[in-house]
Specification:
Blueprint: E1 6-8, H1 18-29, E2 36-38, E3 43-45, E4 47-53, E5 58-64, H2 73-92, E6 96-103, E7 109-117, E8 128-131, E9 141-145, E10 153-158, E11 163-168, E12 172-173, E13 186-193, E14 199-204, H3 208-216, H4 219-228, E15 232-237
Length: about 260
């Protein structure tokens, strides 16, 4: 006999939504029962039910359970107290909590559901960051955040490993801001930089090969080659010619 697939806390289509996953972790950690749903969406066991608002990154939290003629006032009171407990739990965790009230079958206005918004995070879902496990080491990884925080960690897609990994929030750094592209016409002057982007010297040449040959005649460039196993070359624009040698390392590469 095949066992029917079920989901807890949300409908199957909502299971991968970041704000739903974050809310489920909080409810589960607090020991709150989750509503159980059959594959067809029918609620087969009462508990907390989460329904995402994808456009606003909010999630609606209610108690899901059968409510019919046999549901008495005592049970309705218990459900309202349960939703009140949800509100206190999420407010304590820093979530924004908005209460929504409805009238029940007896005409009594009750707290029916909550609209929850996860507290602001420094690295939202779908943003890029630099992962630096140990500042003393050279290891760096560019990651794309794929989940809301769970404690002090988030899930992220690693460019280095090409898979999802879990990283500590305090080991993430913002991507460095690019300086504005230089203005002016292209010239026949070239900047020569080392592996760290520091300018070594400038040379005049018609093209890239000519600039490299001119650079290699300079002793300071040959010293960099021995140290870094190479150097970088970029054609300068007219606006950059007034910048003193050695102050161009923050200028991004352009054609």
């Amino acid at each position: 006999m095949t066992k029917t697939a079920t989901t807890a806390g949300c409908l199957p289509a909502s299971g991968d939504v970041p704000q739903v996953k974050a809310a489920l972790r909080l409810l589960t950690h607090d020991g709150q029962p989750l509503a159980v749903f059959a594959a067809d969406g029918a609620c087969i066991s009462g508990g907390a039910y989460l329904d995402p608002r994808r456009a606003t990154n909010e999630v609606v939290l209610a108690y899901c359970g059968e409510d019919g003629p046999a549901t008495d006032e005592h049970e309705r009171n218990d459900r309202e107290l349960t939703i009140r407990a949800y509100a206190d739990l999420f407010a304590t965790a820093g979530w924004s909590v908005t209460e929504h009230r409805d009238r029940d079958q007896a005409g009594v206005e009750r707290l029916a559901r909550l609209i929850l918004a996860h507290p602001p995070v420094r690295f939202p879902v779908d943003t890029a960051a630099v992962y630096v496990p140990d500042p003393a080491e050279e290891y760096r990884d560019i990651v794309i955040i794929t989940s809301l925080p769970a404690g002090n960690t988030v899930e992220a897609l690693s460019a280095r490993h090409r898979k999802t990994i879990r990283v500590a929030l305090d080991k993430l750094q913002p991507l460095p801001e690019l300086a504005p592209a230089p203005e002016g016409e292209l010239t026949d002057w070239w900047t020569i930089t080392d592996a760290q982007g520091r300018e070594i010297t400038r040379v005049q040449a018609e093209d890239d090969p000519g600039a490299r040959k001119a650079a290699e005649r300079k002793a300071r460039v040959r010293a960099v080659v021995r140290r870094d196993k190479g150097f970088a070359v970029r054609r300068l624009r007219s606006s950059e010619l007034a910048v003193p040698v050695g102050e161009l390392h923050d200028v991004p590469r352009t054609a």
